[in-house]
Design a protein that fits this description.
The protein is 79% helix and 0% strand. It is mostly helical.
Amino acid sequence: MTEAASIADAHETFVHVRIIIGMILGISVSRLVTGMTRFVQHPGRERAYSVHLAWVVFVLLFIIHFWWFEFSLVKIQTWSFAAYFFLIIYAGTFAVLAAMLFPDHIDEYNGFRGYFQARRKWFYSALLILFVLDVVDTLLKGKAYYHELYDWDYPLRQGLFIAGTAAALFVRSEKYQAALVYLALLVQIVWIISLFEFLH
């Protein structure tokens, strides 16, 4: 196979992979947006819980950020089923988080606060997996990609996310959970702004 043919084949694979990932992420975004409208549709029945709602915003923002930067996968010249399978798992984790944030029914719980606290270990476990997968995804794009966009700040950010989320599995304090999600939101927003300023 010639180099030109190999590049063309890699591009076709990239387009195929992005379509599959886009479908999964589309389901995730739809679930989150539809879930948030429940607070508008039924304000008396569906009461928002600040920690839960902040995580909804965080995950939605993470999906938007993830989808934009997955365009960097176009730089991969040789695709494998393992890389493809990994990306499906990564994108699927967003769908899992979205479904956990807005389940079909919470009738057996005392609103979203009761539901979230009852299922917090499941949520934080999935979130922890997401942060670890993000590290693998970044490495998958290659050293050139990493050094083009990141420096010491990426390991620090991911280390804080992973350590903070791991602690949330054992710390029941709602104050800690609130501090964690607000800090995570602030870091994510600053992170995105800094990256887009760099790319601009």
